[in-house]
Amino acid sequence: MTTIESAPSAGADARTYEVRTFGCQMNVHDSERLSGMLDAAGYVPADPGGEGADLVVFNTCAVRENADNKLYGNLGQLAPVKAGKPGMQIAVGGCLAQKDRDTIVKKAPWVDVVFGTHNIGSLPVLLERARHNAEAQVEILESLEVFPSTLPTRRDSAAAAWVSISVGCNNTCTFCIVPSLRGKERDRRPGEILAEVEALVAEGVVEVTLLGQNVNTYGVEFGDRGAFAALLRAVGSIPGLERVRFTSPHPAAFTDDVIEAMAATPTVMPQLHMPLQSGSDRMLKEMRRSYRSKKFLGILEKVREQIPHAAISTDIIVGFPGETEEDFQGTLDVVAQARFAQAFTFQYSQRPGTPAATLPDQLPKKVVQERYERLLKLQEEISWRENQKLEGRVVELLVTESQGRKDGATTRLSGRAPDNRLVHFTVPDGADSPRPGDFATVRISYGAPHHLVADDLGSEYAVRRSPAGDAWERRQVDACGPVAPAASGGGVSLGIPVLRRG
């Protein structure tokens, strides 16, 4: 069991920290745990406008080509800062730390701690050891020490929370280094997951996102193929929880019972992120993706049959080794048929340690860039058309804290629709103004490619206060004193900090 050793107690002499996160939702979730452990050890979050933290933690990603350059660039910028700040510490964790191990300290000897993906719970101990011994501490474990969700946490949002249901991956995609860094899939027991969600709801959380490297293969470790669909139904029935999401599933393991669970459980949101990677069957085979484009499109068709308003997003890789113009056209064809609400598109980059890195026919950058731009243009057109279809629809938003749209002509707040689309909305004059975490009902007036706008100040507008809004308000009180009452006319008076608005 991990022991959390204490830094100086909270107060004027407490050490401050900052966690910088790169990568996927799993990294974001791990960073919340890192922050929670540092809080428990007596550190306090650094003031964003202050002179710099006593501890900077990098939670890294190893998937993208420039991940190394990004890390070492940041570390280089901190070297003179640390030299002028006695006692400052720097720690590097995450996937890149798991992969590079001792290389980090050799390239950046001013780093104090390097820890891996399997032992994030060791960070406070390693920091104290580095301080005591006056030398860098490198600890990389080959198997999971403590399941991340059992560690303390500091969540950025009072309304929404990540809940990890599994870690690791049993697939062997040729472009991906994650299995070698995160290990084989490990599944939590359903009772542990449900207990965590219930505890989150008791704190005011109204939305959870279930996380897994291949979230829909949940149950493989204890031999239950129907475990994920059953978990969706069970989580979705927890009293007080209003929204359930999950990411990311694998098309090869996506079964009809999951679609049925999504459709039958009102709290499971009409949203699906389904990674395509390529529309070419030949490329999918080279990638070791164990499905083909027909199966992929068939899944989308079944989802839309049972959940007509589902917003489906995807991941796509452009320029995989050996990709021909015909292969790329296959991707364009699937994208046109799929009508994705959003696509996260990536130019293929060689990652040492992956089978694809040694494949022949690595494509020239110029070719990859040209294809990438064509794909972006097509998806932009599709996203815009799909968003325009929503004009006039009435939706209930979960109001967010910091995703506002700067617009000198209007003052807007922002929220997420059930399908996870971002909506910027105007509060009518004289109407109640929601807090972050509350729900607002609005009518969509305009669909842009990447967001929706609700400026139609009709009779549909309504605010529903929620436990998440109460929790957000308590955070403000804890941080800076009592919250002033909301003023009529669409404004919110909060003192400091001020609510960031649309």
- Would you tell me the overall average pLDDT? 86
How far apart are the first and last residues' alpha carbons, in Å? 45 Å
The rounded Rg comes to 23 Å
Low-confidence stretches: 1-10, 484-502
Number of continuous helical runs: 14
Question: What's the quick description here?
Answer:
The chain is an alpha/beta fold and 502 residues long. The protein has helices at residues 25-40, 67-83, 95-100, 102-107, 123-133, 178-182, 190-202, 227-236, 256-264, 281-286, 293-306, 325-338, 365-388, 467-480, and strands spanning 16-21, 44-45, 55-60, 89-94, 113-115, 137-139, 160-164, 166-167, 186-187, 207-211, 243-247, 271-273, 311-318, 342-347, 394-399, 412-416, 422-426, 439-443, 446-447, 452-454, 462-464.
Summary keywords:
14 helices, seven-stranded mixed beta sheet, single chain, cytoplasm, six-stranded parallel beta sheet, 4Fe-4S, 33% helix, 502 residues, disordered N terminus, metal-binding, alpha/beta
